[in-house]
Design a protein that fits this description.
The protein has helices at about 65-80, 105-120, 130-135, 140-145, 180-185, 200-205, 210-220, 220-230, 250-260, 275-280, and strands spanning about 5-20, 25-45, 50-55, 90-95, 150-155, 160, 170-175, 235, 245-250, 265-275. It is α+β, with helices and mostly antiparallel strands and about 280 residues long. It folds into two domains: about 5-160, Ribosomal Protein S5, domain 2, CATH 3.30.230; about 170-275, 2-Layer Sandwich (Alpha-Beta Plaits), CATH 3.30.70. Strands 1, 2, 3, 4, 5, 6, 7, 8, 9 and 10 form a ten-stranded mixed beta sheet that branches. The protein is globular. The model has no long low-confidence stretch (mean pLDDT about 95). Bound molecules: 4-diphosphocytidyl-2-C-methyl-D-erythritol (CDM) and adenosine-5'-triphosphate.
Amino acid sequence: MIERWPSPGKLNLFLFITGQRDDGYHSLQTLFQFLDYGDEMTFAVDQHAHIRLLNEIENVPCEENLIYRAAQCLKTQAIADKRCEETVGVTIGINKILPMGGGLGGGSSNAATTLIALNQLWHLNYSLAQLADLGLALGADVPIFVQGYAALAEGIGEQLTPVQPVEKWYLVAHPNVSIPTPVIFNDPELTRNSPVRTVEQLMHSPWSNDCEAIARKRFRKVDELLNWLLEYAPSRLTGTGACVFAEFDSEAAARQVLTLTPPWMTCFVAKGATISLLHRQLSE
Ligand SMILES: C[C@](O)(CO)[C@H](O)COP(=O)(O)OP(=O)(O)OC[C@H]1O[C@@H](n2ccc(N)nc2=O)[C@H](O)[C@@H]1O
Ligand SMILES: Nc1ncnc2c1ncn2[C@@H]1O[C@H](COP(=O)(O)OP(=O)(O)OP(=O)(O)O)[C@@H](O)[C@H]1O
């Protein structure tokens, strides 16, 4: 039987860099909210022992695909813990809708959906906390997608405090450039000394993204997009880019601006979600 599972995107409503650890990773305070928009995945489990991907993602070899890596990592752990046999297998399909390298967390979300779906379909019985731990080795954003609730993330993104930001409507725009995360994190001019603040302080201060100045300086298209959107609504970079988002109180207001976007902008309208689509399906 083929099972369908959602793999939603996220926004970083704010992102402050508060330091850099000895291993080079940056400590952050960032607010994650999900989008009611994302990729769609299919899972067909079998007993043929192989993990197969139905379709390739452009420029991502199978062994590097976070979907394959998540499935392989879960299977290896489950065999070591004697929770499944070597014979478990699966064929996984993906309908890629989220732009890649866009700061919408597509790869991390795919990895989280894979961990959660296979945990259920292979009857492994791991807790969400155990899956989040496994996922952290695949990417800093995997735990938030595994936990599935909007949260303030601290540390390198793994220490989560649930919060309930207003579920606004967003016009999300992609500048048709991809920004690899290290390009931003390795920039010597990146702000790395934002003050550490409490949840209350953060929720009541103006929201911004410390990566935005570097993304605007190094990628002209990001700068152009933001200049255009800021004429209509408060707008910011998500994650390390390249996508930017403008926020609105209603769908109608977001769609009105969508009709005005010039042809060079790739955009979509989506609503913020406190609980991810994946977890809404889990609780049905
Ligand atoms: C900053 C965020 O976009 C916030 O959503 C994400 O945490 C980045 O997540 P990602 O793109 O999945 O990044 P990862 O694959 O975990 O890390 C890519 C690279 O970014 C740098 N990196 C990442 C996360 C972090 N807190 N500090 C870092 O310095 C590291 O050099 C790392 O090798
Ligand atoms: N299943 C996958 N989907 C998307 N990208 C993948 C996948 N597997 C591996 N990758 C690699 O990960 C890179 C980052 O993709 P992703 O879409 O997660 O970036 P992102 O949205 O910038 O993430 P973040 O917000 O976590 O920084 C891609 O350029 C690609 O090389």
